[in-house]
Every structure is written in structure tokens, then in C-alpha cells.
Design a protein that fits this description.
This protein is α/β, with parallel strands linked by helices. Among the domains are: about 170 residues, Valyl/Leucyl/Isoleucyl-tRNA synthetase, editing domain (Isoleucyl-tRNA Synthetase, domain 2); about 120 residues, no CATH class. Helix content is about 45%, strand content about 20%. Strands 7, 8, 9, 10, 11, 12 and 13 form a seven-stranded mixed β-sheet that branches. A four-stranded antiparallel β-sheet has the order 6-5-14-16. The longest helix has 28 residues.
Length: about 900
């Protein structure tokens, strides 16, 4: 089979992906093998492939392909998340473009549009993952809105409600005015923002006196129902029992006392707005204050906003501050920096809002999940540093607000049958709800038409927290064969930004629903940043198009480029040049294959150099394999790739192939060729998880193979013992060869010219590798010597000295001059270092590491001086 001169990834990638798919190599069914299972962090149905997805899914594919080679029953379950807020927003915007309002068409029609949008645009990212080479079992693809997945969510809700863990409560929640829904505490991002502190004066009823309060939100004075002072604050003790008048609204409100007020903040007086602040709400409940909600669901002002009704809160802030100033209520304004909560989904500023919501009690549920990570280590986090973050979140957990004021999602299975707030039942379907309602209301005349289902849907995370269980049918059929075989899953690969959103909640669900962990290990990847350390984003324009990268460089090259990115903490610094490095590596492997496949084979004796070279590489391979295995155990995936990269590029291509390469137009012996082919195939196995397309293409070109002999289902190399003394000896020989090559380069001695080499051997270096040195450095004779050889060029490796007789083309006088100049400089350098080390103050006060560095400089300089003096002696 002719081998093309260039590796063309665009030609082979689709071919081999289709081959793997046609032969069902990605599919998994329970059998007698040990399972290795990964569930994909389901990307949003609205999503497209970006660099974060590329990194995360490359790592998952590396792990799953390696597991397949190790003989596990590898199962990688793909899927998508319905992403309630994001998807609904896209559908609403699409309808607006057609002049349609969501509220005008009703829930049923809206859901038809949402499904139509999902079927048209959803799943794009899964097709893009195939281009990356992801070997998911696509026959198992799940969507969180699939019928069985939704049924699982509803069943869990009903079961947890029956256990008393889910309740409905009137609470202060985080309201997203843009998405018009509540959010959980974890979906609120707090950011420091520049604002202003407004000082407002309130008149005291019946007195010619005013009291000043400070607020960052002057628009909310329209919802004030009290002013609070600290009972210990002597400045305001005379106001106890009096009343104040709210500016503009002219509403009379009480002045109350409570230790909650900090006397040092602002003026020491606090305006109390129970409808718009969590702490104000608590004060309101304690002092029986009126609650006035001044906002509509989009954060515009309602009728309590007086003449500002219908205007946006931020517009009102500007206008009301102007009015307050004109009427003499605004005494001063100061610049002020405070933390403002914004929606993780829409970026809108969160508005605290009182409403009826559904909550899941978390304190008791969290305890087994805390123990699993922090005590028993049944679930291990990599890197371990994230345990502190996990501990902080889980030990300070609050009840989870699980209801959302949306239509796209699993509708809450609560059914109302009367006029009262508590006239409802929770059931998996309307028929069961009717039976429960009849029993609870003691009314056998109730009909299905009398039931009204809750309008809200469940938080998207309430479906994805079941993911490792629900994808195997473990909620609806808790003892089915698949859940018993694949669960707990093996590894989870995800980003630290959803450690609490998703990872912690899956652990909670695992112990609550199945009394065991959902996975064994969690590998938390870093963010992909640009080479300047900035997070990649569309707004910065620093995020390359993932598909274009694969088109330009090939999927394997992009995978390698991502994983070779230099780590910054736990993040990855990505530069497109790394994809070029990946492409260069692919070409290096391809050209190595072309090189030895082009050799003529003959039944001739094997050379001693080839025998030693193969023996060395076999041991070196085992050394690197052990290193790679250790990296995988610690989830140092980039380090594993780098170890393989160096093995193949340096040890195999640059050294072994040069050692065994036959002379020009000469054949290679069959034993050596077969050994090289076997070694190369083992290299391909190590590389396959990282570069699946290239390695499969070469594997299939090596010889005719049946489908079940494909590389993807071959066997990972086995660990064997290795001779580290041979590896050390060879490393020494490589340094000698490098020393000779440096002299050739510096003195412009042709590589075709054979040289003699004299060795003053003080290290006890083995003579066995002389044949390697002779071949790779073109040395005619290697001789031992007991003393420096005059008239030679010299170099030193550790304490061994090497002498190459100078040829006629070397200008000895010029060489002596250069060596003398270098000797003078080195002696001056040593004198300066020794002077610093003789300074007792420096040695006493400098860090131990700094002193050690200076001492090493002195030792190195002394060794160099000895070598230079011997070189001069040999030339004179």
C-alpha cells in the first residue's frame, strides 16, 4: 500500500469515525467485563462547541479510549440539558420577531414552538463533538426533556414531597427581572460595582425635625414601612415611639428600635422595606410591619410607584433622585462600592422578591454527601484543593429553591382543587392527584376538571442532578440490569464552576436515592484562557472557532494543542500555535512510519548497535509507561501526553530510528525491522487516546486487519520491569554524542568526516554503548586514556573528559586564544561569587535556597575552569 507523502487529516477523519460507528465500537451493553462509565456533562440544547467544551470532552475521550484499550466495558453516555431559562429566552425572542407574545398564545402553543425550536437547533453540539473524535455511545443519547427522563424528575419530586423534604413557602427569593423567574442562591453572582449612597431626610410627624437615612436604592423609599434605630443610640433615643413621613409618598411610618441596626453605618438610621430586602423582611415580621411590593415582574414600578408607574427601576433611580433633590429631601450623594447580585443566566441585576415557591430541604440531605468527599473519600476530587470550596458550600447550605416561573421544563406535579392556599396535592399524574384530592378534601365529587396544575416548572438542575441515575433508568426501575451494572459511574469530568450547581447535588441525589455515590472520581478541569491569561469569550474576541481549528489543523492536532497548553494554576493557557505543534507532531509520527516502511528487508545479521538500541528503547518504553500510568491515576492528563510526546518524538524518532537506520541504499535485517514495527505499534497504542484518527490510519496501513483488530479495540501495553541502569547508561551516551556534535558544529567539521575519540573515564562508564556513539557521532575509534591528550578539542560530561584530535582545518592558535579569554572570564566570575559567599552577613541573612544557588555557581565555575585549563594544556 502506497503511503502518501503527507498526512491529510481532513481526508481520513470522517472515514475512520464512520468505520468505528459502523462496527459499533462505541456501543456498550452489560456483560462479564468490569464497566468503566462516564456520563457527559450535558451541554445546553442551545449550545455550540467552544474551547471549554473542547477541553472537557477531549479529556473524557482520552479516558474512555484508554479504558477501552485496558479491556473495560467502556460506556460514555452523551446527552443534552433542556436549559429552561436560556431556551425559553431564545424561543420568546424568536416569537417576538414574528410579532407574537408568549402570554398571548398560551402554554400549549408555546410548548409546540419550544419543541419545534429544539428539534431544529438542538443537538448541534453533539454532531460537533463527533468531529472532535468523541467516542460516545450515541445510541444512548439522552435529553433531559425525554419522556422517561421527565417522568424520573416528577417521580423524585413526588417521593421527596411525601418524605416531607419538599415544601411550598412564601419566601424572599432571587428574582431575575429579565427571565421573569426566581433563581437559586447559587445562580446569583455577586460582583463589586460602583454606585452611590444617597442621604435622604424624612420629616418627623408633628415636629419641626428631620431624620436622615442613607440608601443605595432611593427608588425603594416608595415601599418603606418603617425607620429603624438602634435602642442604644443616644442620638435618636428621643424619636422612640414617633413617626416619620416618607418623602414624595407622604406616607406615615413608625420609627422602631432594633439592635440589628449598625450605629456606625451611614447615619445610624435604617429605612425598612420588607418587600425588597431579606433582612428588612425579618424586621418586618418581628415588628408586624406592612409589606409593600413596588415592582412588577420585570422590575418596572407598579401602582405603588405613584407617578413613576411603568418605568424601569434604574430609570426611576435617576428621576426620583432628581425629584428628591429639587424638593429638598436629598442632602448629599457619595460614591459607594457595594456587591450587587446578578443573574448567572441573563446578567440582569437580581431583585429580592417575596413569592410562593417550592423548596427542597438540604441540611440533612447534604450530610452523607459531605462525609463522602471529606471523611470517607468515597468520592475523590481532583485537584484536591477543591475540597475546601466543597466544604464551604456544603456546610453552609440553604434550602434549594427548585421552582421556576417558566413554561419550558418539567411542570411541577402539584394540583390545586380549592380556593385556599393549602388546597393542593402532589402526585405523579392527574389521575393519582384526583384520588389524593378527593381523600384530602373529603369530597368524592371532585373531577379532573376541578384540578389546576401548578404553572411553574422545576429548576433545570433538578433534572440534571439525577443524570447518572436517570440515564440508566434507575429512578423508574431502581433494580434494572443497566443501573446495577453501570452505577456508580467511574469518572466525572467537568468544570469547577458547577461544582455545587451539579456535582455536589448529584452526590446528594446518589446517597438519597440509591444510598451510594454516583461516581468515584471527579476531575475538575480549569478554564481555557488565552496566552495573556484572559478568559476566552466572544466579547473579547479571543476565542477561536473550534470547528475552524479542526478544519485547519486536524482534530488530533487540536486535541494535542489543548492538552499541551501550559497550566496556570488549574487553568490552561491556550495559543493557536499549540495546534501547529500538534500538527507538527502528527507529521513527525507519519514521517517516521513512512521512513521505516520504506526500508528494504533482508535476511542478514542484526547489528550490535540495533540490538542495543532496541534493548534500550524497550526498557525506556516501560519506564515511560509506568510514568504515564501514574499521571493517569492522578488525573495529570497533560503530563501523560507530554511524557508520550517526548518518548515518541525524542526517544523513538530522534534516537532509535537513527540507531537502526541502515546505511544509504542498504537493507535492514528482518529481526530489527520486526522489532521496530512491534515497538511502533506499542507507541500507537499509547498515542491512540490522544490522537485517535492518526493512529488508526497508520495502524490500518501497517497491514491488512479485520475490523475487530482495529486499534480502537486493541490492548493497552502491559507493565513490565525495566533496567534503569541501561537507561542511565544510554542517557550518558546521548550526552557524549551531543558533545561531539556540538564540537562538529562549532568547528565546522563535516558530519561525513570520521573522528577519533579519547576517553579519560572517571565515572566508570560502560563500553557497551561505544557502538551507539560510533554510529551516531561518526567516530572511527574510541580509545581509553589515562591522561589528557595534547593537541585536541575537549569537552566534559560530569567527571569524564573527552578528547578529539584537532584536524588540519582547526586554527589551534585561534582556539587557544578563545579558551584563554573564556578562562579569564570564568575566573573573574568565580572570584565575584566567592566574594559574595565570604560575606558573613549575606550567608546569615539570605534564604537558604539563594545561598545554595550561589554555592552551585561556584562549584560549576570551578569545574569549568579545570576543563578549560586541561583543554589549553592539550592544545599547547
Amino acid at each position: 500500500m502506497d503511503i502518501p507523502s503527507k498526512y491529510e487529516p481532513q481526508i481520513v477523519e470522517d472515514q475512520w469515525y464512520n468505520f468505528w460507528m459502523e462496527n459499533n465500537f462505541f456501543q456498550s451493553k452489560p456483560d462479564s467485563r468490569k464497566p468503566y462509565t462516564i456520563v457527559i456533562p450535558p451541554p445546553n440544547v442551545t449550545g455550540i462547541l467552544h474551547m471549554g467544551h473542547m477541553l472537557n470532552n477531549t479529556i473524557q475521550d482520552v479516558l474512555i479510549r484508554r479504558a477501552r484499550l485496558l479491556g473495560y466495558n467502556a460506556c460514555w453516555v452523551p446527552g443534552m440539558d433542556h436549559a429552561s431559562i436560556a431556551t425559553e429566552a431564545k424561543v420568546v425572542n424568536k416569537l417576538k420577531e414574528s410579532g407574537i407574545q408568549k402570554k398571548d398564545i398560551g402554554r400549549s402553543a408555546f410548548m409546540e414552538h419550544a419543541w419545534e425550536w429544539t428539534n431544529e437547533y438542538g443537538g448541534v453540539i453533539l454532531e460537533q463533538l463527533k468531529k472532535l473524535g468523541c467516542s460516545c455511545d450515541w445510541s444512548r443519547t439522552k435529553f433531559t426533556m425525554d419522556e422517561d427522563m421527565s417522568a424520573s424528575v416528577i417521580k423524585v419530586f413526588a417521593d421527596l414531597y411525601e418524605k416531607g423534604l419538599i415544601y411550598r413557602g412564601y419566601r424572599m427569593v432571587n428574582w431575575d427581572p429579565e427571565a421573569k423567574t426566581t433563581l437559586s442562591d447559587e445562580e446569583v453572582i455577586y460582583e463589586e460595582k460602583n454606585g452611590q449612597l444617597y442621604y435622604l431626610s424624612y420629616a418627623i410627624e408633628g415636629f419641626d425635625e428631620k431624620v436622615t437615612i442613607a440608601t443605595t436604592r432611593p427608588e425603594t423609599i416608595l415601599g418603606d414601612t418603617a425607620i429603624c434605630i438602634n435602642p442604644e443610640d443616644e442620638r435618636y433615643s428621643h424619636l422612640k415611639g414617633k413617626k416619620a413621613i416618607v418623602p414624595i409618598a407622604n406616607r406615615i411610618i413608625p420609627i422602631i428600635e432594633d439592635e440589628y441596626v449598625t450605629m456606625e453605618f451611614g447615619t445610624g438610621c435604617l429605612k425598612v422595606t420588607p418587600a425588597h430586602d431579606e433582612n428588612d423582611k425579618l424586621l418586618g415580621e418581628k415588628h408586624n410591619l406592612e409589606t409593600i411590593d413596588i415592582f412588577n415582574e420585570d422590575a418596572s414600578l407598579n401602582s405603588f410607584g405613584l407617578h413613576y408607574q411603568g418605568k424601569d427601576r434604574f430609570v426611576v433611580r435617576k428621576e426620583i433622585s432628581k425629584e428628591l433633590k429639587e424638593k429638598g429631601f436629598l442632602t448629599k450623594v457619595e460614591d459607594y462600592v457595594n456587591k450587587v447580585g446578578t443573574s448567572e443566566r441573563t446578567g440582569a441585576v437580581i431583585e429580592p422578591r417575596l413569592s410562593d415557591q417550592w423548596f427542597l430541604k438540604m441540611e440533612e440531605l447534604a450530610k452523607p454527601a459531605i462525609d463522602a468527599v471529606l471523611k470517607t473519600e468515597e468520592v475523590r476530587l481532583f485537584p484536591k484543593k477543591f475540597e475546601n470550596t466543597y466544604r464551604h458550600w456544603m456546610e453552609n447550605i440553604r434550602d434549594w429553591n427548585i421552582s421556576r416561573q417558566l413554561w419550558w421544563g418539567q411542570r411541577i406535579p402539584a394540583y390545586y382543587y380549592g380556593d385556599g392556599k393549602n388546597d393542593f396535592v402532589v402526585a405523579e399524574n392527574p389521575e393519582k392527584a384526583l384520588l389524593k384530592a378527593r381523600e384530602k378534601a373529603t369530597n368524592n365529587q371532585l373531577q379532573l376538571a376541578d384540578l389546576k396544575q401548578d404553572e411553574d416548572v422545576l429548576d433545570t438542575w433538578f433534572s440534571s442532578w439525577l443524570w447518572p441515575i436517570s440515564v440508566f433508568g434507575g429512578v423508574l426501575e431502581p433494580e434494572n440490569d443497566e443501573i446495577n451494572y453501570y452505577y456508580p459511574t467511574s469518572d466525572l469530568v467537568t468544570g469547577p464552576d458547577i461544582l455545587f450547581f451539579w456535582v455536589a447535588r448529584m452526590i446528594v441525589a446518589g446517597y438519597e436515592l440509591r444510598d451510594t455515590k454516583p461516581f468515584e472520581n471527579v476531575y475538575l478541569t480549569g478554564l481555557v484562557r488565552d496566552k495573556q491569561g484572559r478568559k476566552m469569550s466572544k466579547s473579547l474576541g479571543n476565542s477561536p472557532d473550534a470547528l475552524e481549528l479542526m478544519k485547519d489543523y486536524g482534530a488530533d492536532a487540536v486535541r494535542v494543542g489543548l492538552l499541551l497548553s501550559s497550566a496556570a494554576g488549574n487553568d490552561l493557557l491556550f495559543d493557536v500555535s499549540l495546534c501547529q505543534q500538534g500538527k507538527n507532531f502528527a507529521n513527525k509520527v507519519w514521517n517516521a512510519f513512512r521512513l521505516f516502511k520504506g526500508w528494504e528487508i533482508a535476511d542478514i545479521p542484526q547489528s550490535e548497535a540495533a540490538k542495543i538500541g532496541i534493548d534500550w528503547y524497550t526498557n525506556r518504553f516501560q519506564e515511560v509507561l509506568a510514568e504515564v500510568e501514574d499521571h493517569f491515576k492522578k488525573y495529570r492528563i497533560s503530563d501523560a501526553l507530554m511524557a508520550i510526546y517526548k518518548l515518541v518524538w525524542d526517544d523513538f524518532c530522534s534516537w532509535l530510528l537513527e540507531i537502526v537506520k541502515p546505511a544509504y541504499q542498504q537493507p535492514i535485517d528482518r529481526i530489527t525491522y520486526d522489532s521496530i514495527l512491534h515497538i511502533f505499534e506499542k507507541n500507537l497504542k499509547l498515542l491512540h487516546p490522544f490522537m485517535p484518527f492518526l493512529t488508526e490510519e497508520i495502524w490500518q496501513r501497517i497491514g491488512q486487519r479485520r475490523p475487530m483488530e482495529a486499534l480502537i479495540v486493541s490492548k493497552w501495553p502491559e507493565n513490565e520491569s525495566f533496567d534503569d541502569s541501561l537507561i542511565r547508561e544510554f542517557s550518558f551516551a546521548k550526552e557524549v554524542i551531543a558533545g561531539i556534535r556540538n564540537i562538529r558544529k562549532e568547528k565546522n567539521i563535516s558530519y561525513k568526516e570520521s573522528l577519533d575519540l579519547f576517553v579519560l573515564n572517571k565515572e566508570g562508564f560502560s563500553k557497551d554503548l561505544d557502538v551507539i556513539i560510533s554510529k551516531l557521532a561518526n567516530i572511527a575509534v574510541i580509545k581509553d586514556t589515562q591522561e589528557p591528550v595534547a593537541g585536541t578539542l575537549t569537552f566534559r560530561i560530569k567527571s569524564n573528559e573527552y578528547f578529539i584530535p584537532a584536524s588540519e582545518q582547526i586554527d589551534v592558535a585561534e582556539e587557544v586564544k578563545k579558551l584563554e579569554e573564556e578562562l579569564r572570564y570564568t575566573k573573574g566570575f568565580l572570584q565575584a561569587v566567592n566574594k559574595k559567599l565570604a560575606n558573613e552577613r549575606f550567608v546569615a541573612n539570605a534564604p537558604e535556597k539563594v545561598v545554595s544557588i550561589e554555592q552551585k555557581k561556584a562549584a560549576d565555575a570551578q569545574a569549568k575552569i579545570a576543563t578549560l585549563e586541561q583543554s589549553l594544556q592539550s592544545l599547547k
